[in-house]
Amino acid sequence: MPDTDLPHAPSAVAPDWMTEQLRDHIGAAEAMSALLPAVHSVAALLVSAFERGNFLLTFGNGGSAADAQHFTGEILGHYKRDRRALGAVTLSTDPTTMTCIANDYSFDDVFSRQVSGLARPGDIVAAFTTSGTSPNIVSALRTAQERGATTVLFGGGDGGPAARYADVALLAPSSTTPRIQEMHTFMLHAISEYVDAWAAGDEAFA
């Protein structure tokens, strides 16, 4: 029999702080309804780009870098269906390139330098950020627009300075990092569902 007197024995009742976080999550999720048309628009933009042979470039810092990688994985690999690969790359996954640019130029340039060399007109460049204030995010979006790419911001709140350089801003209805990232996951999954269905010839998600 387990010793229930142990300090970390599970409780039958969730702590108040955990219940409050769940309520916050549910509130943010319910408020996402207003953003669904914009999410659908981004999915359609991606399909149009892939039809032309263009690519998706993603990036972010910290947890947002993980979200950017997640998005690329769903697109380059697949989401649910067995279908052809689609062109996508995350700009934070090559430590040699990242440290080279940071060392020779600045950490503020680690994404914009790559966007400058890789992005082409018609590509989709997607930034993930919870604050919208990171200089390397802002400069990369600005560079992407200069290169003729379509810029998508996965942000939160008012989007911060990064929103200025976003052709489409998907701003999670929250100002707290955990809730923003949770809504980003929902959005990237919804977009992946649409793109996945299109690539597999499933017209039910049009």
The percent of residues in helical segments reads: 40-55%
Mean pLDDT: 94
* Share in β-strands: 5-15%
Total helical segments: 7
Number of strands: 5
Number of domains: 1
CATH H level, superfamily name:
Glucose-6-phosphate isomerase like protein, domain 1
Structural class: alpha/beta
- The CATH topology name reads Rossmann fold
Radius of gyration using CA atoms only: 19 Å
Spans of at least 5 consecutive residues with low confidence: none
CATH class: Alpha Beta
- The CATH architecture category equals 3-Layer(aba) Sandwich
Q: How is the largest sheet built, in terms of strand order?
A: 2-1-3-4-5
The 3D shape can be described as: globular
User: What letter string, H or E per element, gives the SSE order?
Assistant: HHEHEHHEHEEH
User: What does the largest sheet look like?
Assistant: 5 strands, parallel
End-to-end separation: 55 Å
Provide an overview of this structure:
The chain is of the alpha/beta class. β3, α6 and β4 (150-156) form a beta-alpha-beta unit. The mean pLDDT is 94. It has a single domain (32-201), classed as 3-Layer(aba) Sandwich (Rossmann fold). The chain has helices at residues 16-31, 36-51, 63-77, 95-104, 112-118, 135-146, 177-199; strands spanning 56-60, 88-90, 124-128, 150-156, 168-172. It has seven helices and five strands, in the order ααβαβααβαββα. The relative contact order is 0.17. α1 (16-31) packs across α7 (177-199). It is globular, with a radius of gyration of 19 Å.
